[in-house]
Amino acid sequence: MSFRLAKYLIPVVLVVGWFCFTSFGKGVPSGQLVLYCGRSKALVKPLLNQFQSETGIRVKVRYAKTAQLAVALVEEGQQSRADLFWAQDAGSLGVLSKSGLLASLHPEIVDSIPPQFRNRGGQWVATSGRARVLAFAPLRVSREELPQRLEELVDPKWKGRVGWAPTNASFQAAVTAMRNSWGDGRTKKWLVAMKINGTRNYAKNTPILKALAAGEIDLGLPNHYYLLRFKANDDQFPVEQQFFAPGDIGNLVNVAGIGVVKYSPNQELAMKFVHFLLSARAQQYFAKQVFEYPVIDGVEASSRLVSHERLLELAPSVKLDELSDVADTIAMLKEVGLL
Ligand SMILES: [Fe+2]
């Protein structure tokens, strides 16, 4: 090829190449979002990849503990680079919405979620549900014998047979819900009665399940998905679980949820991301990967999960925003000698 021909051909090849790369590749990046994320990288990464390939929007992530990120967002205020906050529990989202740091979500996003799964002001929505349950050892307790109300666990019949995890954030959120529903006096009385009844302390949820299987205890108060993890590895794992009576506070459904930062310059793109997390495919992913409850109807979840409608019947009516008052719960747990 002559030098003159090459001189004309090379720019043409470069221009055509660039066009092909940007048009037919993984999509032209049409924006970028910064996500502060309290959920694990292993869970989130595949979803971000899918979001990017569908929309061309890149998501940069800062991973840390939910409570830590909430503190960072409050400190950063208007200066924050975050567009979105994805939290592991409702309490931290409550802190941010009370601080006026979350934008109002688009009405079509808010309206697609049952009221139990969003805050009243429409500043954040749940992305999945994590329920409190009563786990039990079926070799030693029959389903018929199980208490129907959380308060029945103080019965002398259960002396020394129940396990809980007072240092665990999910347990503390459950106590905060009890304080809101029952009031401080009744909650404190229950905690003390449980302690007197010999309720055993565990560091977190997994040891409760192990203690049930090992015969140390007969009943336990964990989150629902731990048992499903054990069963996924061993179908014969000798523990079962069930809910208390419909509406009982023992069935608290806490959530992972997301909000758009009020000062984000990328409101529209951020809303797209929220929308994406509420799509059937994202919802199914949570249900299959981490056995959490979908927050929308019509998603095929694990056969070990109750249906969306049933979950809504079972869940107590708790204002998820009110779960932000963890400080007073911790003070109460210290006062009764559980921390
Ligand atoms: Fe957990």
Return the average pLDDT rounded to an integer: 91
The outline comes out as globular
In the residues, how many domains can be counted? 2
User: CATH top level of the largest domain?
Assistant: Alpha Beta
SS element count, helices: 13
> How would you name the CATH homologous superfamily of the largest domain?
Periplasmic binding protein-like II
Strand content is 5-15%
How does the major sheet shape up? Answer: 5 strands, mixed
Which CATH architecture of the largest domain is right? Answer: 3-Layer(aba) Sandwich
- Give the CA-CA distance, first to last residue: 81 Å
Strand order of the largest sheet: 2-1-3-10-4
Low-pLDDT stretches are 15-29
Q: Do you know the CATH topology of the largest domain?
A: D-Maltodextrin-Binding Protein, domain 2
Category by helix and strand content: alpha/beta
Care to count the β-strands?
Answer: 10
Helical content (DSSP H or I, runs of 4+)? 40-55%
**Computed Rg:** 24 Å
Small molecules held by this entry? fe (ii) ion
**Strand/helix succession:** HEHEHEHHEEEHHEHEHEEHHHH
Describe this protein's structure.
This protein is of the alpha/beta class and 339 residues long. The protein folds into 2 domains: 30-129 and 254-305, Periplasmic binding protein-like II (D-Maltodextrin-Binding Protein, domain 2, 3-Layer(aba) Sandwich), CATH 3.40.190.10; 133-251 and 325-335, Periplasmic binding protein-like II (D-Maltodextrin-Binding Protein, domain 2). 43% of the residues lie in helices and 14% in strands. The protein has 13 helices and 10 strands. The protein has helices at residues 3-24, 41-55, 66-76, 90-98, 107-111, 169-182, 184-196, 205-214, 225-233, 267-277, 280-290, 308-314, 326-335, and strands at residues 31-37, 57-63, 84-87, 124-131, 134-136, 162-164, 200-201, 219-220, 240-242, 253-260. The strands form 2 sheets. A 5-stranded mixed β-sheet has the order 2-1-3-10-4, with helices on both faces. Strand 1, helix 2 (41-55) and strand 2 (57-63) form a beta-alpha-beta unit. The longest helix is centred in the first third of the chain and has 22 residues, at 3-24. The termini are far apart. Fe (ii) ion is lined by residues 170, 205, 223.
